């Protein structure tokens, strides 16, 4: 049998496949185009639109802070469509306040600044520091602190690994790991197992990928494939950092990816807090037939080329979004809270959305749509020019991202209200929210009582119910009651 190197790396077909699409194009989709001369110091701020105006100029109040973390070569500009949709959705605005975390990944800008982070854990440490600062700040404007609340993180691509590193590898001033400060992590196209595309670039002699894309190589090296699935990768390259970060996933066994001797990591993975979104195919362009309906654009040629490479170059197909295999984006093998799929999508669209042409009975217009949450039912057009189509999308579907954020926000309000309304039964000192078995819950150690939320209902279990699970009401009903009481 041919060795992996001779069978894969040195074949003329492989070189033509990747080289023929243009090396810059092959990686442009991952790293983005364009850089700035000076590094942006890592910064966490209340979200702003691209024109510099505030998205939400009010204190977090009884809502939850939601941190938006971009990926490699990305920027906060990529969250614009989501934030514009947020502006137009009263239910979203009532549930959470968005913050954005930005950092530099370009080689020129990072190399020009000795203080700039040069690895994913270094960026994660900067995120930890920024979160600590917002925990210490007053909640009222212009400080916009977190008000003592834990956060939800919504992260795209490498941003999900930044968040996971912060949660697992970094401690806050009180000694708690970052994962204790996070209620939920939602990842969009995150390479939890890396991507073979990065190995391909390195193996083909592109050891300094920054020369092609101006992306710092320190980040790229931590995005290579961990070989969690036994793919016999070539050249003996190893991604020890990601292998160690992932080593509690059952599918990895004791192998820790292809690194073999990576030491076990005793720290909790907080997998029960992760909802991982992925997509398995780039988007074909809809042909405008002139009939009533919505017409989506196709994925860019760079993503089409890299998608085909991942499907055909390894002796086994890797369904992917143009950059990240579906199995990696959904963190196969890890005991996650949920795995979700996005449709009519790719690595860019899953975060940014796309502009679609809509032909209706009353006229033709363009709006911004987001990837569909269903393979059967597409995202519903907004119904207006320059609108934002969220219904049926990964963001706006009842079980979608905004729904996840809203459920956590309502649960926290109900818990806070119950602690005041039933203080004698609960004795809330030392209580905090957690996740288990599909429940969002708080445990009250003084009384060994629980208040939990699952499937839209609220339950109590403790001495007042003789240890039995007791239905308290629906989450919607009790959240409205809590809000009416000032929570």
UniProtKB/TrEMBL annotation:
Keyword Acetylation tagged: no
Gene3D superfamilies reported for this sequence: alpha/beta hydrolase
Single GO term (MF): hydrolase activity, acting on ester bonds
Residues covered by the GPI inositol-deacylase PGAP1-like alpha/beta domain: 64-198
Membrane spanning residue stretches: 21-41
Signal peptide: none
Keyword annotations of the record: Membrane, Transmembrane, Transmembrane helix
Protein name listed in UniProt: GPI inositol-deacylase PGAP1-like alpha/beta domain-containing protein
Naturally occurring in which organism (per UniProt): Ramlibacter lithotrophicus
């Amino acid at each position: 049998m041919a060795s992996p190197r001779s069978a894969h790396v040195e074949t003329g077909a492989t070189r033509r496949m990747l080289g023929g699409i243009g090396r810059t194009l092959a990686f442009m989709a991952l790293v983005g185009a364009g850089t700035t001369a000076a590094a942006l110091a890592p910064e966490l701020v209340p979200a702003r639109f691209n024109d510099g105006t505030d998205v939400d100029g009010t204190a977090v109040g009884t809502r939850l802070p939601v941190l938006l973390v971009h990926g490699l070569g990305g920027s906060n500009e990529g969250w614009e469509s989501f934030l514009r949709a947020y502006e137009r959705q009263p239910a979203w605005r009532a549930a959470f306040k968005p913050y954005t975390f930005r950092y530099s990944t370009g080689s020129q800008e990072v190399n020009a600044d000795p203080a700039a982070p040069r690895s994913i854990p270094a960026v994660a440490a900067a995120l930890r520091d920024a979160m600590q600062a917002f925990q210490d700040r007053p909640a009222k404007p212009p400080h916009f602190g977190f008000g003592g609340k834990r956060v939800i993180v919504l992260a795209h691509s490498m941003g999900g690994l930044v968040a996971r590193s912060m949660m697992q590898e970094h401690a806050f001033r009180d000694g708690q790991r970052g994962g204790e400060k996070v209620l939920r992590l939602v990842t969009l196209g995150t390479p939890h197992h890396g991507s073979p595309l990065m190995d391909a670039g390195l193996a083909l002699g592109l050891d300094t990928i920054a020369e092609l894309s101006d992306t710092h190589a320190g980040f790229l090296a931590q995005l290579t494939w961990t070989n969690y699935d036994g793919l016999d990768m070539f050249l003996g390259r190893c991604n020890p950092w990601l292998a160690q970060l992932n080593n509690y996933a059952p599918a990895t066994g004791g192998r820790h990816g292809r690194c073999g001797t990576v030491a076990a990591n005793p720290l909790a993975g907080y997998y029960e807090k992760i909802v991982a979104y992925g997509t398995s195919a780039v988007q074909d362009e809809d042909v405008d037939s002139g009939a009533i309906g919505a017409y989506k654009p196709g994925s860019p040629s760079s993503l089409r080329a890299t998608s085909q490479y991942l499907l055909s170059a390894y002796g086994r197909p890797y369904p992917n979004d143009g950059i990240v295999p579906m199995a990696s984006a959904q963190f196969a093998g890890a005991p996650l809270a949920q795995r979700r799929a996005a449709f009519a999508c790719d690595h860019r669209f899953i975060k940014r959305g796309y502009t679609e042409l809509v032909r209706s009975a009353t006229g033709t217009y363009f709006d911004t749509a987001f990837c569909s949450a269903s393979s059967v039912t597409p995202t519903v057009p907004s119904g207006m020019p320059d609108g934002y189509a969220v219904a049926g999308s990964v963001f706006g579907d009842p079980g979608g991202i905004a729904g996840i954020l809203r459920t956590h926000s309502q649960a926290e309000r109900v818990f806070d209200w119950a602690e005041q309304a039933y203080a004698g039964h609960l004795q809330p000192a030392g209580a905090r929210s957690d996740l288990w078995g599909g429940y969002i819950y708080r445990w009250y150690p003084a009384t060994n009582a629980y208040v939990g939320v699952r499937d839209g209902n609220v339950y109590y279990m403790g001495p007042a119910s003789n240890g039995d699970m007791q239905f308290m009401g629906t989450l919607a009903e009790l959240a409205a009651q809590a809000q009416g009481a000032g929570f």
